[in-house]
Structures are given as structure tokens and as C-alpha cells.
Amino acid sequence: MRVLVVLLALSGCCLAQLSVKMPGDIVLGGLFPVHEKGEKSPCGAKVYNRGVQRLEAMMFAVDKINADKTLLPTIRLGVNILDTCSRDTYALNRSLEFIRGSLNNLDVSAFECNDRRPPRIRSNSTGPVFGVVGGSYSSVSLQVANLLRLFHIPQISPASTAKALSDKSRFDYFARTVPPDTFQAIALVDIVKSLNWSYVSTVYSEGSYGEYGIEVFHREAQERNVCIAAAEKVPSAADERVFETILGKLLKKQNAKGVVLFTRAEDARGLLNASKRMQTSLHWIASDGWGKQQKLVESLEEVAEGAITVELQSEHMPGFDEYMMSLTPDNNHRNPWFDEYWQDTFSCILPQYMNAEDVDQEICSMDLRLSEKVGYEQESKVQFVVDAVYAFAYALHNLHRDLCRPKDKVCPAMATYDGGDFYRNYLLNVAFKDLGNSEVKFDSQGDGLARYDILNYQKLPNTSGYHYKVVGKWFHSLELNIDELVWNRGSDVIPTSACSLPCAVGMIKMQQGDTCCWICDKCEDYEFVYDEFTCRDCGPGRWPYPDKLSCFDLPLQYMRWDSLFAIVPAAISCLGIILTMGVVILFIRNNDTPIVSTSLDYLDFSFAFLP
Asked: Where are the membrane-spanning stretches (predicted)?
């Protein structure tokens, strides 16, 4: 315990970073990738649009719940939202704040007792940390889940899809509103097979998301006779040189035109950048790490054209777009990163951040607003963030109903209720329709429903713009509209990605090492193709069909006397008989001559009748 106290004290001293804090009777923690990874520091300078939207989605959901008179009517939810900077170790350190807050709120100092009444939460307390929404990256969730389970704090992720997180022996306080990558990997193999590709390369990110996902893809591909030409891992904090090296290895496999990506967004963009610099073109099939992100393909549209991506099927959250479009730096003071997001979105600088070096930069106008015209689009995981918050709210509502009186806020029994029991008895058992009228529930492993959209990145007709077009869906099986696919440079012809082309009729495969690579060898005229690797003799009286797939019995043919083929041999035979008889007669008539008489009569006559 002493070690823990020292650790928490150090974290409070050294990690005094910004956070979003809204007081409430019950506080939900939040973990979102607001900033990118830093090269020499934990956090980079770039602000992620998706991270800010997910953060705002959590506050949007909390605002709606707090305004709802039927859901947790006597309890006000608060938040404590932290930036993970897209880095698992940094997120783990930041999560210590949840632990410290949880311990503080379980201490008796958080309660007050007046007039011999039962203990109740102090009015100025932030309330116990009942659960955490996040993280986004699977690597972050894996680290944080291991910490939170030690203190019985449930966690719901709106984006982490690593298969390992379904293991309840290790992550028994973890749930998610999204499905595991097992289904996504199967969907990717289904896409590859539907294109008749048998030879592809793969690229995956270092960490649980990429490594677990590509493992399932490789296993499923092998079972379905899809060969892997090259499998390249993108290390953490990869630079331009690393991406160019990986791309060079992919290009060496000239027949593997298709490349399957199971990468984080920044790694997918790194590959596209390398492809643009090296002026090369490949055909991409990508997981939801790419999904339908516009920022990922910004200025890289030409090398991304034709990409097929998988994205979790999500519904537009009604009211969220209006909420986001109403926000400005002047009215959104609870989000400390919103100013950065604003400046990045509009490529300007707010007056309060100007200094002598910024005189040439454009100052942000007071009239600026988020809209579709400036590229605003609801991020695909917003629904799952909102669903995660509502899942906590419904579970807490049921817990309050069972333990507290109707007019109570957080009664002592609820404040001290074990997080493990809350997770198993309440959180996993919620089932409801969300704001978009989609069904939300968890299976026994705490996983969400597996539904995916299949997208194709296409150029808009008669314009210079590009967009993601939905060309199919996956729910247990693939439905793909092949005719709607558009490839590089607007081609509608499905490219070939095979080590060897199929053999012609009457030919078999002679394999050369890899099961997907072969040369074609022709069967003999009297042989048929027994299987794709073997020719077999049809046997006596049989002959192969033209397609060489089987044999048939040769029909018996009899010679007719009026046939030319009968008349000519018969005439020749008759002539031979006549000549033979003439020789015999000649021998008989000249039997007393010296030449004939000196010969062996029996032998001479035998020669006459021999053929």
C-alpha cells in the first residue's frame, strides 16, 4: 500500500496535464486520443479530429442524460476526461488519476453524517469513479484494463477491437460497444476471395490491434487457399524511411498487387505518403483503422483511389452535428483542447495565442463555424462513444433502483457497491435502443454486435473531389456489389492479384514452393485431368473429352463392303492371290525343267503360299 501511495503522489506531481472535468454525483472517466504520438515527448503537436469528436460525444451524451427526467433523475453525471496521446504507456500513467480519485471517494472524508442520518456523499465531492469510457486504441485499452481491474473499475471501450480483450480471465472488467477483430479479419478475407485474389501482401501495426488482427486474417486466409506474399510490421513511431523500406519489399512481390492493411490510421497514411513519393500504385484493402477517415487521405487522394475499406456500421447520432456546429472557442471552455482543434480546422490562429512570430498568420474570424463546407463530418465512432455512456447510465439507473430510495442521490450502498458485481450483474445485462434507434447490448464476453460497411474510395464524377462510397456490408456473411467498385485511375476492371494464372484446359499445375505459385504442364492426348496436379491415362478403348475432365468409351466401328476403305484392300488382296496362283501354275507346268527339278519341291511350293 505504501508503494501505491508513493506512485500516486508522483503521478500527481509529474503528470499535471490538462483534462476535462465536470463535477457530478457520479464521475465517469474518459480516455481519448486527442493528440498524436510525440517523437521525443509523449504527446505530439497535431490534434486528431476523431479524438476531439469522441471527447465531445461523451460530454454530449452526459448532457443529454443529465437533462433526462426519466434516466437517473436524481443523479447528475460528471466526467474526468484525459488525453492518451495515442500512446499506451502514457495512457497508463494518466489513468492513475482515476485510481487516485476512486480511492479518495471511497474514503470516509467523502461522506458526511448530520443529525444521526445515514452517511451520504458530501455536496462538494466529485463522486466515485464508477467506470471509464475508452480507450480508443486496443494497445491503450489492454494496458488500462489491467490497471483498472485491480481496483474493480469497469471499462467500456468505443473503439478497441483486439481479440485478446474478449478473454474474461484477463479482462474481467472490460466491455466494448464494438465487436472484436475476429469478425473484421473474416470480412477482409471474404473481400479478397470475392475479388478472386489468391496472392496478397499484408501490412500491420505493431501492437495488439494490428498483430492480433493480422494473425486471424492469416489463419483464415490459409484455410481458404489465399497465400501471403509478404507480411510487414510497422514499428511504433515509424519514420518515412521505414515506410519506404516496407513499400519496397511489397513492390518486390510483383504479382501480389493487392495489399491488406491492418494498421492504425497514422501508419496507413505513412504508407500512402511513401507510395506518393515513390510514384507507385498498389490496390489497398484496409481495416477500420483506415475506415472512412477523410483526414487520412487528405492530399493523398490519387494513391488512395480504389481502396476498399471496412468500417463498423454506425448510425448518425441525431443532435450531435448541431451540438458540434454550435461550439466555438468563446462558448466551449470546458474542453481545454478545443482552441487547438479550432485553429487546426480553420488553419488560423486565435488572437490570444498570437506572438511576435505569428504576424504573418491569418487570425481566426469571429464568424467561423463548423460545417460541412469546411469539411466537418460526424466521426464514425461517435455512436459507440454515446452508446458506452448510455450503457453506464442504464446500468447505474438499475443499480440505483435496486439499492436506493427513489428520491435518493447516491446512497451509501450504491457508493460502496463492488465494481465487479456492478459489471457482471448490471452492465453486461443492459439492452436498449440508442439515440439512432440501433440495438445496444453485450454478449457474455462483453463484446458488441458485429456489423460492418464495405467502402470504396472513389473519385466523384465530373469533379476533382473524392468520397467513400458504401458498396457492401458484412453481417455474418459478405454482400458486395462488385459492379460498383472503382479502382485506380477510374478503372472498373478488377485487378489481378495472383502468383500464377489459372491453367488452360487440359493442363495441370506443377507447384514451385508456394502453394499459390505454379507452372502449367499439358496432359498427353490420351490422358485426362484427374485433379489440378495429376494427369491419368483413360485406358484401353477410352478417350478424353475435349475439356479433359473425364473419358468416354470409343464406339465400335465396322467396315462396309461398299466403302472405299474396303474395296481397295480387297482388290489388292485379290491381285495378290491371282499372282500367287500364277506362280504355282508356272512351277507345275515346268516341274521337269532342270531348275525346278533340282530344287526341293516341298520347300519351293511352301514359299509360294507364304505371305
From this structure: 564-588
pLDDT tens digits along 70-120: 999 999 999 999 999 989 999 999 999 888 766 654 444 445 555 555 655
Burial group, residue 289, by CB count within 10 angstroms (0-12, 13-18, 19+): buried
Same domain assignment for residues 186 and 147? no
In a domain, 217, yes or no: yes
Instruction: Give every residue of the chain whose pLDDT is below 70, as ranges.
Output: 1-17, 101-128, 356, 358, 513-514, 596-611
Q: Say yes or no: 129 and 218 in one domain.
A: no
Are 244 and 297 within one domain? yes
Q: What's the confidence (pLDDT) of residue 193?
A: 96
Q: Using CA atoms, how far apart are residues 305 and 308, in angstroms rounded to an integer?
A: 9
Number of domains in the chain: 4
pLDDT tens by residue, 172-201 = 999 999 999 899 999 999 999 999 999 999
Q: What predicted TM-score, i.e. pTM, was given to this entire model?
A: 0.72
| 238 within 8 A of 270, measured Cβ to Cβ | yes
Cβ contact 141:211 at 8 Å: no
Separation between Cα atoms, residue 474 and residue 182, nearest integer Å: 13
Q: Please state, in angstroms and as integers, the Cα–Cα distance from residue 347 to each residue in 46, 269, 340, 505, following that order.
A: 12, 20, 10, 61
How many other C-beta atoms can be found within 10 angstroms of the C-beta atom of residue 300?
Answer: 17
DSSP assignment of 421-476: HHHHHTGGG-EEE-TTS-EEE--TTS-----EEEEEEEEPTTSS-EEEEEEEEESS
Which residues span the domain enclosing 519?
507-553
Whether residue 165 lies inside any domain: the answer is: yes
Q: Are 499 and 229 in contact (CB under 8 A)?
A: yes
Strands of the sheet with 155-157, listed across from one edge: 20-22, 77-83, 26-32, 129-133, 155-157, 174-176
